[in-house]
């Protein structure tokens, strides 16, 4: 049971007392002040994350991953069409793959698939 000074009158008050015996004021609870300070720091951190660019960076990272997965899925669909589809289907799927790599900003694969698209569309009777 420690004594602390009353924040109103300065009298010594037990840390377990509910009110100051001299002035009747409820003493401030240091644990409560600590939890409020930690809560404020946490709130500032959350606000900084959302408005300081943390959310945008995470979204951009996720978007790149999604775009790469879309391109990979488009290649799988192209291979299915190539194995069992009509020449027109193969041309369309090659176009979808090149568009997926363009969206993913993958220049080398985009150029490769544009050439494949031109060749496949030529077989289907479509000039580019």
TrEMBL record:
Keyword Transmembrane applies: yes
Residue ranges constituting the Zinc-ribbon domain according to the UniProt record: 6-24
Transmembrane domains' residue ranges: 33-51
Domain of life per record: Bacteria
Protein keywords: Membrane, Transmembrane, Transmembrane helix
Protein name as annotated: Zinc ribbon domain-containing protein
Species this chain originates from: Janthinobacterium lividum
């Amino acid at each position: 049971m420690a004594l602390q000074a009353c924040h109103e009158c300065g009298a010594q008050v037990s840390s377990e007392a509910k009110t100051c015996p001299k002035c009747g004021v409820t003493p401030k609870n240091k644990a409560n002040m600590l939890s409020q300070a930690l809560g404020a720091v946490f709130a500032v951190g959350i606000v900084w994350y959302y408005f300081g660019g943390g959310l945008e960076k995470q979204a951009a990272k996720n978007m790149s991953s999604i775009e790469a997965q879309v391109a990979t899925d488009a290649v799988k669909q192209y291979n299915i069409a190539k194995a069992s589809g009509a020449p027109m289907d193969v041309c369309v799927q090659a176009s979808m793959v090149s568009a997926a790599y363009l969206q993913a900003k993958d220049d080398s694969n985009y150029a490769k698939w544009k050439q494949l698209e031109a060749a496949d569309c030529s077989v289907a009777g479509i000039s580019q």
